[in-house]
Each structure stands twice: as structure tokens, then as C-alpha cells.
């Protein structure tokens, strides 16, 4: 249980992160300033600086908040799961669904747009988001396939689904749910078929 002071501090921090999220998504990393966030927050700039020492620190908090929600959904279908075709299909469908949420797309576009000018943005995002997801996927595959094959399958699975998401974003007309499921089914069938051949040899 948090005391009143700690609770108020946590609420203020959450408010700052919410304001910063909107600003980063709407203006981009370069055009978001600590001064503008402090102004929207109200009160003194000291309040903002008491919670976050820099724009990079604040951006990291925004990424962590976005990734935490994403990771919880992924963990729900991966944690304590052993490899099976149905479990793999559930994970792949959930992964694509999470990638297509508005906040996930906005964060992806932000990192893509600002990553060249600000490499720290790309590095921060990768270490806090994709790297964690890849570790979860690797741990899902490893008990069944072994470490080396799990690494290859992790790369195949994550790259296939994130690549499909990018393809969807470029299309004038978004693929239907049925089309999305067909893509996932094809990926899962490919992995399952390879596993069958591996076991037979």
C-alpha cells in the first residue's frame, strides 16, 4: 500500500507520461520539448524535472508504458506455454493484433521517422520492446527445438509478422480479418510442416 504522498507522486508521474505520449506522437521526438510539456502540465518546471531528468528519460518512460501493455498481452499467451501448433497460432494472432493497435502503430512510426536523426530513440525502443518480445518467443520455442533452432524460428516468426504489419500499413486497403488469419495460418503451417520433417528424419 502506498501512502498519500507516494500515491500523489505516482499520479503526477502518470499524468506527465500521458502528456508526453500525446506530444511525442503528435509532434515527433525532435519537436517535443520539456518546456512545452511543463507548460501543459501546469505549475512549475521543477515539478517535471523532479520526475524526469531529461527528454530522453521521459521518452524512455513513454516507451516503457506502451511496451508494458503490449508485453502483458503477449505474456498472456506465451507464459508457461510449451510449444504446440495451437499455442503458436494463438501467439501469432495476438502478436499481429497488438502490432495493429493505434498506439503500437504510432510508436512504430515515431521511431521509424526519428530513428535516423536520433539513434538513441531507435536503440531505446529496440532494447525495451522488440528485444524483450524476441526473448519471450525464444523461450517458447527453445524447450521443443533447442537453442539454435529456437533462435532461427524466433527470427522467422517475428520478422514475418512485423513484415506483414508493415505491408498492411502500406496498402491502400487494409486486409480483412480473414486475410490476416490466412497469413498467420500459412506461417504456422510452414513451421509445423518443418517440425514434422525434422522429427521424421
From TrEMBL:
SUPFAM superfamilies: Homeodomain-like. Gene3D superfamilies: Tetracycline Repressor, domain 2. The keyword Transcription regulation applies. The keyword DNA-binding applies. Keywords: DNA-binding, Transcription, Transcription regulation. Residues 10-70 form the HTH tetR-type domain. Residues 33-52 bind DNA. Pfam families: TetR_C_7, TetR_N. This is TetR/AcrR family transcriptional regulator. It comes from Novosphingobium beihaiensis. The lineage of its organism: Bacteria, Pseudomonadati, Pseudomonadota, Alphaproteobacteria, Sphingomonadales.
